[in-house]
Design goal:
It is a single chain. This protein has about 240 residues and is α+β, with helices and mostly antiparallel strands. It is built from seven helices and four strands; from the N terminus they run H-H-H-H-E-E-E-H-E-H-H. Strands 1-2-3-4 form a four-stranded mixed sheet.
Length: about 240
């Protein structure tokens, strides 16, 4: 588990500058919930029903809580991170569109009935071609009880799954595909790191502030942790942190 916490960029959120206008702030309850989740300190009584979905039981360490999708009106992790990433691109002066229809992204096993927009379409990203950025978030602890568990394998598999599903269609339609996989500890898969490093280079070249480049990774990392904190706190029957 501690290897997961030491994964690339899993601690970037700690360096963020608190700025309320950018959503870079947490309550004390949220911050304590994040620390407990990351250190696997029990948050919930075993086998208590989830007070939100009422379909499954909570596990003490909060894994169900951070993946439950039944909170009405809640901006789930995927959407929150997508919105922050889009805002980073916009502030860096990189031309992009959120939820852009491209008419070729679909599940190859299901055909055109599953056509979906690109999470973010970045214009002229590589060799004049537009890039379809597709986000996915997973738990770093998937397979923890299996023999041969390797820290970081969850986001690596998630990234490979996205590539297998969408890269061919993007290439055939003269687009570049960028899988953006992250886990609930904030670690990033290699393609996501490469993408953000390039964005970071644009940011650093446009600012005289020597630490301006840290803005990119810390904002994305904080967005991931803020969403996890909200999911956990929403399921606390009493604020006991």
């Amino acid at each position: 588990m501690f290897e997961c916490l030491r994964a690339p960029h899993a601690q970037d959120f700690l360096s963020v500058v608190p700025i309320e206008g950018l959503g870079q702030c947490m309550s004390a309850v949220e911050y304590r919930a994040i620390l407990k989740y990351r250190l696997m300190i029990p948050l919930f009584p075993d086998d208590d029903p989830c007070p939100v979905c009422r379909k499954y039981c909570l596990d003490s360490f909060g894994e169900h809580a951070v993946h439950c999708k039944e909170l009405p009106g809640f901006k789930y992790r995927h959407d929150l991170v997508r919105d922050v990433l889009y805002d980073v691109l916009k502030r860096a002066g990189i031309s992009a569109k959120k939820e852009a229809p491209v008419n070729f992204l679909n599940d190859p096993l299901e055909g055109k009935s599953t056509l979906r927009p690109a999470d973010i379409l970045v214009f002229g990203w590589e060799g004049g071609k537009h890039a379809c950025v597709d986000l996915t978030g997973v738990s770093p602890l998937v397979g923890l009880r299996d023999h041969g568990f390797v820290a970081g394998q969850a986001i690596t598999k998630a990234e490979a799954g996205k590539v297998a599903k969408h890269e061919k269609a993007c290439i055939e339609n003269q687009h570049v595909f960028v899988p953006f996989a992250f886990d609930t500890f904030g670690a990033l898969a290699p393609d996501a790191v490469r993408f953000l490093k390039r964005v970071q280079h644009v940011v650093s070249s446009n600012t005289a502030h020597v630490k301006g480049q840290n803005f990119v990774f810390s904002r994305v990392g904080f967005a991931i942790q803020k969403d996890v904190a909200a999911q956990l706190v929403a399921r606390l029957t009493t604020i006991s942190l």
